[in-house]
Fold:
Amino acid sequence: GQQVMQIPQYQHVQEGEDFTTYCNSSTTLSNIQWYKQRPGGHPVFLIQLVKSGEVKKQKRLTFQFGEAKKNSSLHITATQTTDVGTYFCAGPQGGSEKLVFGKGTKLTVNP
Amino acid sequence: GAVVSQHPSRVICKSGTSVKIECRSLDFQATTMFWYRQFPKQSLMLMATSNEGSKATYEQGVEKDKFLINHASLTLSTLTVTSAHPEDSSFYICSADSSRAQHFGDGTRLSIL
Structure:
């Protein structure tokens, strides 16, 4: 079945350092979504990318969707302690509304 | 907008008890809602798709008689864990689709003693 792989599983950085998480799908995706889950919280929608090669920015966060629409990345510039949490990518399963989630990348930031 | 409310947030009960979890879309209608289970330090595992006015669609390996889902209105889906046992202890989260994104409830942490 469709798989969404995400690396790294864990990332520990010093505050101010950059951070990147990578997502790869076994199938071409119509879109890819990113979510953030704070410790003890629920996933919160960050962004959706639809177009091949699309790049979107949200302040210090940069999201990219690969040309083949099978991979994506999230890059955070100059991390802050408020960035801690687990970042998940997710892609639709086939033509349905169901999402297949990656395993997530847990980010910890040392102040 | 797109707020999903889930209740209760935490349940601790004895083995054999049935537990009902409610998921409400507060400011939008949701013909489809999703129920996930999340084990500690792991990703979200889709359990079932809840369809308003019809039967839920369960993922492979999820017992439909164990996890009863009812989606009686466009704003409410319920998940009942029947005769819960310690292995059912987990974090259960619902979501509803709005504006091409899924919006999650706060989750229910279920602990079966």
